[in-house]
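Can anyone check this?
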Amino acid sequence: MTSKLFTPIKLGKIELPNRIIVAPMCMYSADNGSATDWHLMHLGQFAVSGMGLVFVEATGVEPEGRISPGCVGLWDDKTEAALKRVIDFCKDFGNAKMGMQLAHAGRKASTDMPWNGGKPIAPSEDRGWQATGPSDEPYADGWQTPDEMDDAAMERIKKAFVDATERCVRIGFDVLEIHMAHGYLFHQFLSPVSNKRIDKYGGSLENRMRYPLEVLGAVRAVWPKDMPLGVRVSATDWVEGSSWDISEVVEFAKVLKARDLDFIDVSSGGNSPKQEIDVGPGYQTGFAAEIRRESGLTTMAVGQITSPQQAESIIRSGQADMVALARGMLYNPRWAWHAAEALGAEAAYAPQYMRTHKSLRGLPVPGNPPVAKS
C-alpha cells in the first residue's frame, strides 16, 4: 500500500515532495528582530531531514508587531539580511521548501519570553512597547490596554505587510502564510471577543473580515501570482457565546477560496483567557476536515499529531491535505525519516547523512574501511 503522506502535493507552481510540514514555532532567540545562529541550526536541521515544507516562526512586520523582544522580525535591511543568511543555508544544503509566516501580535504584543514567565511587559519598561489592536480591549486582566487602530495605523500596518512580503520575495521563500490565528492582530479583527468597533470594520462578519482581507489583497498584489499564499486561522475561540467558531470560519474560508488563496492552515484558540479547549490527539483535525469539505480549499491540519500512522490516517481519510507538526518536530527532528520507515515510503536525505538510511546501515563508510582484527 502506497503511503498518502509521502505523495507530492502542488501549491501554486511549487511542488512539495510530501505532505509533512514543520509548523511555525516561536524560538524567542532573535537579536532585536534579526535571526541568529540559533535559527540557522533550528531551521537547518529540518531542511536536511526529509520534510516537505519548513516554516519560519511568526515574524513581525514591524518592531511593535512582535510577540516578545526575542521574536524574529522583517522590517528593514538588517533583518532581511539575517533571514536571507538562514534561508540560503537551508536551500543550499536542504531538500525542503521554505515558508514564511508573517504576523502582527496586536494587543498580545510586548510580552516576555516563556522561560521568564511570558507575562506582559509594560510600555514604560525598557524592553516593552505600546500595543495596538482593533479595539482598546486588553487581552486579560493585568495586560496593557492597546491603542485602538485609527486609519493611519491601519494603513501603516498594511504597508508593513506589503514591504515584508517584498522582502520575502527577495530572500527567496517558496511559500507565504499570513498569521490570522492564536489571538494575534487579524484574529482580533475577526472575532467579536476582541473586536468591539462600531465602524465598517466591526459588528457583522462581513465587517470583521474587511481589514484582514484588505491586507491579504495588498499582499497578494506583490507576492508572485504563481507562488502559494495561504493563511493560518483559529477555527474557534473556544469561548461560549463567541460567534467566531467553525461556522464563521467556513464562511471566511469560502471568501479566501474565491480570492484564489492556495491553502488554509487550521488551528484554534488563543484569543481569550476564558477559552475552554478540549485537548487531545488530533483535536483540531475535525475543524480542518469541515473547512476542506465546505470550502474546497487545500487544508493543513495541526494539533497533537504525533505518530506516522495518525498522520497517514488524516491524509488518507481526507480530513486534510497536509499535516503540520510542531512539538513533535522539536522532540524528533528526523520525524520524516522515521515516518517513512514506518510507512514503507522514502524521504529525502542530505548526502552527508545518507549512511543512516536503512539500506546503508552497518556498511563501511567510503574512504574509511574498518580495520581488520588481528
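Reply from J.R.: I decoded it. The chain has a mean pLDDT of 95.
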